[in-house]
Design brief:
138 residues; 3 helices; 36% strand
Length: 138
């Protein structure tokens, strides 16, 4: 069994946003040479997320509105966590959207369902954040 590890770094120009990272994962899979196994992709920061969904701009706007209703950014004073930082809402949004995804690798390709893509979700941007790709298989 082989394993392959790669880190990606993202710096979004806004506090919140979404990036389709499927091409990065596919590139890592090609680099790994693994044909059968699993790809794990996870955010390495507690205010960012990795998740699978459809790459549709209306859906991304829906995520933003829905998450902002669940955990509004302001007023900052509504959160006990906020003191040194003002990102309690980002921690909560990450909890809802998830930390990682695992995708089967079959015949050297990510074995997705219809419309599935991998996304990086940023909830406290404007700084560098890391994403880990780990591929295990043969």
């Amino acid at each position: 069994m082989k394993s392959y590890r790669k880190e990606l770094t993202f710096r979004l120009p806004s506090r919140r946003g979404y990036v389709n990272i499927t091409p990065y994962c596919e590139e890592a899979l090609r680099e790994s040479g693994i044909k059968e196994g699993f790809l794990l992709c996870n955010a390495m920061h507690i205010t960012a997320s990795v998740f699978i969904n459809d790459d549709e701009s209306g859906l991304h706007r829906d995520f933003e509105r829905w998450l902002e209703k669940l955990a509004p950014e302001k007023p900052y004073s509504q959160y006990d966590h906020n003191g040194y930082e003002d990102n309690a809402d980002a921690h909560l949004k990450r909890s809802v959207m998830g930390r990682e995804v695992v995708v089967a690798v079959t015949d050297g390709k990510l074995d997705f369902g219809t419309w599935e893509q991998i996304f990086y979700g940023e909830f406290d941007g404007l700084r560098n954040k890391r994403v880990l790709i780990k591929i295990i298989g043969e």
